[in-house]
Amino acid sequence: MVFSPTPRQLFLIDCLGAWFSALMLGFILPLMTGVIGLPQDVLQGLGICAVLIAVYGTCCYGWAGRHWRWLMAGIAFANLLYMCLSLGLVVWLYASLTGLGKVYFALELGIIGVLVYWELRVSGNAYNMVNDRT
Question: pTM for the complete prediction?
C-alpha cells in the first residue's frame, strides 16, 4: 500500500517538519557550527525562513477549507524557494561543510523534495477534478 496523504495531512506534515527545521537551524545547529561547518548567521537565517514556512503551514492546516488547493500551491512554492536557497548556500559553502553537515542538508532537502512532490501532486489532482466537472 502506497501512502497517499490527504491535503490536511500534508499541511500537518509540512508545518511539523518546518517547525522541526526551524528548531534545528535556529537554535540547535548554531550551537554546533564546528560540527556542521556553516556559520551561525547562515544557519539562523535558514531557521528564520523555516519559521515563516512553519507559520504559513500552521495557518494552512487551521484554515484548510474550500480554497485548500491555493494554500497547498503556496506552501509548495515556499518550500521550493527554501530548497533553492538552501541548495545555493550548500553549494556556495560546500568546502566548509563537514560530513555531518552534508548529511543533514541532503536529508532535509530530500524530505522537502518528497513533500513538494506530494503537495504538487495532490493540488494538481484537485485542479484536474475541478476542471473535469466543467
Answer: 0.85
